[in-house]
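Researcher: Let's do a round of design. I'm pasting the structure tokens now; please hold your answer until I've finished.
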């Protein structure tokens, strides 16, 4: 029976799992993944917005550099071949150290290797380069080079038209380089294979919102270096800039050809340049982000003096500025980087929590549902077997009654003692029948409206004795040893005698039913304090300790091979306990020694017991 139940629970179990638990799980996983994607998307959006603001800034700074060159060009326009004006460094604040160089003889200004330490350093570090003895590293934009190569390739095709088409191609190529990681990868590997050096940037990349990431990777520059000689540089244009990084010091050289053999120029005053850059920068700090320019060493040029400066090496997003300011970057930082990650974490956590709660609720309610279903199904099954069992149980006493009644009718037994015995059996079987029918009727009645008793004061001792002795004939006829011990005194109690008889008969009948080889039943009655105690013991099959709790439940029948052979309804003990409790008493089970079961019944006695003086109040 139990196996069938477990088996039949498989289907609702699987159904519940596939219809509720699985979709619930999938929904939770999807929600969490969607939340993560949404966070990544938001971060990307923010990065894109900042990046375009930076692109605008880079453009403005490039314009500043152009205007610096134009200003310097203009300031030397009038000088012709005579060299720069004597008060050049005073007329424009962009001029740091002015110089003049003769292609054949070296620096004429500063003269004699320079006076101030700055001049001396300038002359010492640039003479070799100006005399074409050493090359210098020039930074070229990879994006520009790539765009050139794309245009060059397009020019080979017949469909290429210069003008708009060329500009469009250039824009597309530089966009592709800036945004497409695969294009970048390919270009970098091409450059390396051609022996070109791609410098590392000062900033590092890593997860922007995850402060725990330590293994940041330095980013590759979008500029590539190329060694060039001074003569090659000055051959390409009438004037220009040459950026130089010497021993960690940055120097921006401005030069202009004055005639064929003279070059005038200056070390540009970077303070003046950075002032101009500052004027084109957007608002340095807002509630959301901080903007700054990082110099060639990765140090902020404008430190807005925030109380907790960001990790300068680790911007939210950054862009290199120009080949004229190598390794310089405009960088953007989140004012509160933790806010983004903590918001992401809170969103994810609350979603995980929600999904967890949802899942737990589903699991618990499913479990309760399955458990309820299991007990309902068990009860339904018990009720079905109950009907079959009742009809079977009715048959047994009826058969006995019929046999003995026929024997008496046919007068085959002349012995009056035996005849008496047969009549006794008929009476006890009738009692069994009555008990069985009463059990069923009482049970359904108690289910509907509760049972009513007609209680009166009677002697429990006499009642029990009469009942037990009525059973003796049949029990002994069925080869039982029936041991009885009654009380020596009257045990008055206010009870419904028929109900109590029914209860006692149930227990006696069980003792008889569940005895196998050792047919022994004991019925004893005594007084303990203010209670009457009735013990009914047998040496039958006994009850498994695991089932001892359940035997008083309605329809419950022990499901083992020994007990299953016996007919029963599973109502006897339920009704017995109900009757006893309705009388203020109770019943409990305990194993009998050496084997079998013992049921101990307690019933309260009337307070005033005749002949009882000492313990009458107990
Ligand atoms: P039933 O009509 O099945 O006997 P009961 O409510 O009287 O129903 O008993 C419930 C179950 O308790 C029985 O099915 C049986 O397994 C077990 N039981 C009751 N009395 C005894 C006993 N004296 N010895 C062994 N098992 C018993």
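Researcher: That's everything. Go ahead.
Model: Designed sequence:
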């Amino acid at each position: 029976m139990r196996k069938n139940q477990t088996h039949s629970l498989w289907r609702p179990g699987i159904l519940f799992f596939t219809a509720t638990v699985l979709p619930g799980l999938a929904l939770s996983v999807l929600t969490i993944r969607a939340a993560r994607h949404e966070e990544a998307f938001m971060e990307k959006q923010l990065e894109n917005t900042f990046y375009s603001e930076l692109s605008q800034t880079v453009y403005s700074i490039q314009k500043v550099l152009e205007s610096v060159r134009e200003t310097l060009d203009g300031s030397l326009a009038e000088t012709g071949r005579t060299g720069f004006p004597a008060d050049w460094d005073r007329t424009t604040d962009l001029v740091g150290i002015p110089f003049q160089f003769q292609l054949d003889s070296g620096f004429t200004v500063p003269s004699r290797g320079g006076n101030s330490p700055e001049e001396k350093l300038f002359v010492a570090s640039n003479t070799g380069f100006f005399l074409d003895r050493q090359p210098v590293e020039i930074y070229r934009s990879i994006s520009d080079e790539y765009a050139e190569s794309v245009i060059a390739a397009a020019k080979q095709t017949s469909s290429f038209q210069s003008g708009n088409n060329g500009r469009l191609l250039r824009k597309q190529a530089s966009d592709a380089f800036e945004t497409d990681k695969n294009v970048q990868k390919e270009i970098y590997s091409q450059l390396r294979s051609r022996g070109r050096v791609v410098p590392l940037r000062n900033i590092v990349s890593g997860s922007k919102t995850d402060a725990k990431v330590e293994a940041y990777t330095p980013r590759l520059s979008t500029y590539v270096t190329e060694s060039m000689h001074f003569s090659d540089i000055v051959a390409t244009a009438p004037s220009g800039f040459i950026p130089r990084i010497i021993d960690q010091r940055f120097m921006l050289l401005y030069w202009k050809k004055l005639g064929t053999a003279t070059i005038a120029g200056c070390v540009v005053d970077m303070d003046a340049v950075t002032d101009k850059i500052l004027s084109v920068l957007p608002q340095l700090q807002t509630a959301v982000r901080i903007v700054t320019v990082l110099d060639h060493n990765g140090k902020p040029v404008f430190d807005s003096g925030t109380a907790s400066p960001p990790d300068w090496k680790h911007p939210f997003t950054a862009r290199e500025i120009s080949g004229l300011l190598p390794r310089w970057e405009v960088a953007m930082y989140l004012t509160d980087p933790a806010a983004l990650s903590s918001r992401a974490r809170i969103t994810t956590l609350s979603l995980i929590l929600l999904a967890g709660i949802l899942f737990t609720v589903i699991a618990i309610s499913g479990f309760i549902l399955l458990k309820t279903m299991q007990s309902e199904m068990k009860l339904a099954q018990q009720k079905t077997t109950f009907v079959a069992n009742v009809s079977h149980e009715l048959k047994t006493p009826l058969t006995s009654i019929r046999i003995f009644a026929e024997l008496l009718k046919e007068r085959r037994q002349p012995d009056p003692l035996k005849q008496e015995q047969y009549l006794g059996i008929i009476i006890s079987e009738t009692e069994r029948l009555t008990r069985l029918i009463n059990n069923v009727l009482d049970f359904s009645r108690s289910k509907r409206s509760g049972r009513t008793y007609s209680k009166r004061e009677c002697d429990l001792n006499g009642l029990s004795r009469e009942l037990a002795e009525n059973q003796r004939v049949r029990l002994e006829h069925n080869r039982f040893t029936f041991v009885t011990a009654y009380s020596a005194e009257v045990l008055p109690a206010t009870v419904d005698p028929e109900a109590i008889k029914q209860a006692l008969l149930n227990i006696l009948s069980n003792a008889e039913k569940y005895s196998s080889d050792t047919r022994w039943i004991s019925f004893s009655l005594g007084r303990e304090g203010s209670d009457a105690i009735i013990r009914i013991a047998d040496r039958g099959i006994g009850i498994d300790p695991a089932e001892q709790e359940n035997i008083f439940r309605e329809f419950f029948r022990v499901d083992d091979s020994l007990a299953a052979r016996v007919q029963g309804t599973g109502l006897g003990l339920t009704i017995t306990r109900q009757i006893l409790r309705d009388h203020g008493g109770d019943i409990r089970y305990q194993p009998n020694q050496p084997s079998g079961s013992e049921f101990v019944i307690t019933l309260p006695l009337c307070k005033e017991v005749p002949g009882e003086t000492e313990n009458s109040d107990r």
